[in-house]
Task: structure prediction
Amino acid sequence: MIKVQNVSKRYRNVNALSEVSLEIPQGSIYGLIGPNGAGKTTLLRILAALISPTTGQVWLNGEEVSQSPTAIHRRVGYMPDFFGVYPDLTSIEYLEFYAGIQGIPRKKRARIITDLLELVDLSSKRDALVETLSRGMKQRLCLARALVHDPDILLLDEPASGLDPRARVELRELLRTLQGMGKTVIISSHILLELAEMCTDIAIIQGGRLVTAGDVDKVTRSLDGARQLEIRVMDRCAEAVEMLKGISGISNVMSGVNGESNLIQTDFTGDDEALHRLLVQLITSDIPIVSFAPRSSGGRLEEVFMSITEGIQVLQGDNPS
Amino acid sequence: MTFLALLTKELRLRMRRERTVWVIIAYILLMGLLGWFFISSFNNGYGYNTYNLSSVGTQLYTLLAEIQLFLILFITPAFTATAVNGERERQTYDLLLCSRLSSFSLVSGKLVAGLANALLLIAASAPLFSLVFFFGGVSPTQVLTALLVFVVTTFMVGTFGLFCSTVFKRPSISTAVAYMCGLLWLTMPLVIYFILLVSNSLRFGPGQPLLFIWNPIVALISTYSPGTIGLVTIGKVHMISWVAYSVLCAIATVVFFLLSMLTAKPHPINRLRMRLIRKKADAEQKVTVTA
Result:
């Protein structure tokens, strides 16, 4: 468990972070969302014990970060928003160097590096110079570097920026694998859709302040108050729309969305039980439903995020990220 | 172990750069050509017989040794003055901080790698110096003491360069400061000496003035001209110039090394500073609550 309590960071006259408090569950993929200058990188650097907060405290499994940075560095793998590579080294030499400065015994290094290169799918590039690798490969190599000492916690700052769609999917799969290995992954990004698909929990930061934090669906609902449903019917679309309009908790019913005549989109306010009752009601009315699903939280999250950060962009320029 | 990992990486990176090879070639060529022109100037078409061969050897050695000293002063800062802030510029500094690399390992790894390049140049020039023995006039002891002066100068200048790289964030600034300080270190005693000479404030006693006690040129000259210039007097103690110089350089190297350790990884200082800021913030909060 990572606990951030009332953390503020001040750079001369600029507040990068103000009174941020978070609790990050162990084994989660935690997304930090915010526009440029929101304070995401500052928070990650504080978690990595690279900088100390001006006020407040951060605990990693009961250990205060600013009091024992060396101990924290053993447990944290940090990947900044830049590559940080030595172009004249080969992939294997690059990892060997970081394994060395993490104090891994020479005998164990070869096996660890082989496993890591396999994990990030770079085994075929083990003897290639880092400068010859593509952007996605460099990103994966940096991730392998962050994992070289087998940390419990991974701090990834904008890991998907600048990657092509394929590399992003690969990265997402990789992060899921790491979560499966029991690691806590804290990731910052602008790409909200991907974060929503990848993360179990999120925190939205705006102008150095925490807007909201928690489970992805919960955050979306708490900010929006409603979730969006997509109902696909075989026919009798108009009848279904009329019926939905009469049900409490349903609003903004639209049919023929995206040019699909049988697709209905609607906002729904209520808990999972109410959602279940709605489905039962539709089925008992004998409406031929093909699919019934809440719209992906990523798209919703993006809308929610855009709405809450609208008009505050001017303030962001002052804050270093 | 972390020191060895850093040193291996540094040596790999440095030795793979084309620049390293070109620097060695240029260094040897420069020294070799100057030496060759010098010997040629003695050749009157009938061989060297009309001259005293040992005198040619001594003068050749003097020339090579002084060129070597200037090249060391000129090249060594380039190897170390960008060592730590170069990592900042390459955006790899945070990754070093996020490891088990101690301040000592970081500074010593960077220093040894930087000095290895400079010492490689000294070693590469050894065959040129051996030419002197064909002519005679120079003893192996003189060559060895000059070598000691070269090595302590390299260590001192290198460590100072490294210190600059930990203090200044931009490599261009740290390099400029290292060169400027090196130039002042070399020339200031001479400038002060002339000012004192002109204003008649200089007292001439036995041996060289204390002003030159930490001057590499004087120390180098003292290795092959033991006489008035070869002695330095501190109170009642008489010391050979190059010995006094070497001791001072060793002390300065240790001081700059320790300072580099303090400034390379700012955690201890930063933690102390942050603790003070927090105390102040807490005190301010208490005052507000009481009010």
Q: What stands out?
A: Confidence is low (pLDDT under 50) at residues 312-321 of chain A. Chain A is about 40% helix and 25% strand. Residues 6 and 315 of chain A are 21 Å apart (CA to CA).
